[in-house]
Amino acid sequence: MGEKVKEEACPKVEVVESQQDKKSEEVVEAITEEQEKEHKNKLNDAYNKISELEDKLIRQNADMVNYRKRKEEEVNRMLKFCNEDLIKDILPILDNFERAISMDTNLTDEEKKFLDGFKMVYTHLQNVMEKFDVKMIDTNNIPFNPVYHNAILLEKREGVEPGMVIEILQKGYLLKDKVIRTAMVKVSE
User: Fold this and answer.
1) Do 20 and 68 fall into the same domain?
2) Number of domains composing the chain
3) Is there a single domain that holds both residue 6 and residue 53?
4) pTM of this prediction?
5) How many other CB atoms are there within 10 angstroms of residue 126's CB atom?
6) What is d(CA 82, CA 132) in angstroms, rounded to the nearest whole number?
7) Are the beta carbons of 169 and 140 closer than 8 angstroms?
8) Which of 129, 130, 148 is nearest to 140 (CA)?
């Protein structure tokens, strides 16, 4: 009999221990599930943060590339037109030489020698202007264009269509296809 009691007591103890083991396993499973959810949330947060940082890096790189392009264009434009102010200051000198050269009538020999010197200097200035890609705007017998022309006078002229340039009062100039001075012209009505 004593043995039976011992045998009966042992299975009860085992049952109690197995129930406790199941409860502790459930608790451990619950804890690990919570930890797993927490780890997944942290991992998702980390992935989201990485994605945000990658996007930010891509945008910054694109901004840097765009900045470099704008800077290069600006520098190229500045280099292309760096002489514009100097050329604008030289244009009135060319105008004065042209006026002096146009007074080629009734001159003494000495005055003709001075005029020949003016012509040489004028020709040299024109060559310098050509070297820096400065061109005169072609304006005679073409339609008036406000981009290239500044209409100073209107005149009715028979045989000429209205809106045509009929006389150049002051030459206009281009610097590498940019208008640096419009031509002052007389236009037909």
Assistant:
1) yes
2) 3
3) yes
4) 0.60
5) 15
6) 10
7) no
8) 148
The CATH number covering residue 148 comes to 2.30.22.10
Interaxial angle between packed helices 84-102 and 109-131, expressed in degrees from 0 to 180 and rounded to the nearest 10: 150
| Selection from 178, 125, 169, 134 nearest residue 151 by Cα | 169
Q: Are residues 29 and 92 in the same domain?
A: no
- From CA 59, how far away is CA 49, in angstroms rounded? 15
How far is the C-alpha of 150 from the C-alpha of 121, rounded, in Å?
28
pLDDT tens sequence for the chain (189 residues):
455 544 554 555 455 556 666 666 666 676 788 888 888 899 999 999 999 999 999 999 999 999 999 999 999 888 888 889 999 999 999 999 998 888 777 888 888 888 888 899 999 999 999 999 999 998 777 899 999 999 999 988 888 888 899 989 999 999 988 999 999 999 988
Q: Give, in degrees to the nearest 5, the angle at Cα 124 between 122 and 129.
A: 95
